[in-house]
Amino acid sequence: MNKLSTNQWIYIALFSGFLISIAISISLESATGIACGLTFWDVLVEMMKILPFAFILIALIEVWVSDKVIIKHLGKNSGYMAYFWVLLLAGISVGGIFVGLPLAQSLQKKGASLSVIFVYLGFVGVARIPMTIFEISFMGLPFTFARLAVAISSFLVIGIIMGKYLSKRNYTLKQDI
After folding, report:
1. Could you tell me the sign of the dihedral formed by the alpha carbons of 85, 90, 91, 92, in that order?
2. How distant, in Å, are the alpha carbons of 6, 66, 124 from that of 94?
């Protein structure tokens, strides 16, 4: 049986403290504490609806998509077409960043460049098709296209700069999340 690391004990202590504070707030009938507990519960339920499918998707990518394909299309020498592929991947993603982070780690393990991963993470936050359709219905087409143009170009530039900067320093994403 593996022993828990110091960081894991810290996470357990913080989470336990959070749950205890919610329980105390509820017992004292604190409106803020009850609202915090309800919000936590809502987020937890939403994550439980999304995460099993996300993990299945990531497992399928791990098994079905070879490292060679990822390196060819999303690796260091893939060119600008890689950014189109991650925009497409982010666009069809559901679950937002909940799915984006584990998928980014999987892509990095398979050989995707840091620039592509950073751009993907930005795109998954702002360019998902379901979110865009919802936004068009409330904000209108001109606003949505303007927001997408600014957001996509910004994340593209920032992701490329960050990726090149960190690649020169031999940075890799943490593997033991």
Report:
1. positive
2. 34, 23, 9
Q: Is pTM beyond 0.85 here? A: no
Give the span between the Cα atoms of 36 and 25, in whole angstroms. 9
Instruction: Return per-residue pLDDT of the chain as tens, 177 residues.
Output: 568 788 889 999 999 999 999 999 889 988 988 899 899 999 889 888 888 887 888 888 888 888 898 999 999 888 899 999 999 999 988 777 878 888 888 888 899 999 999 999 999 999 988 889 989 999 999 999 999 999 999 999 999 999 999 989 988 777 655
Return the sign of the alpha-carbon dihedral for residues 136, 140, 141, 145.
negative
Question: From CA 136, how far away is CA 134, in angstroms rounded?
Answer: 6
Contact 37, 26 (CB under 8 A): yes
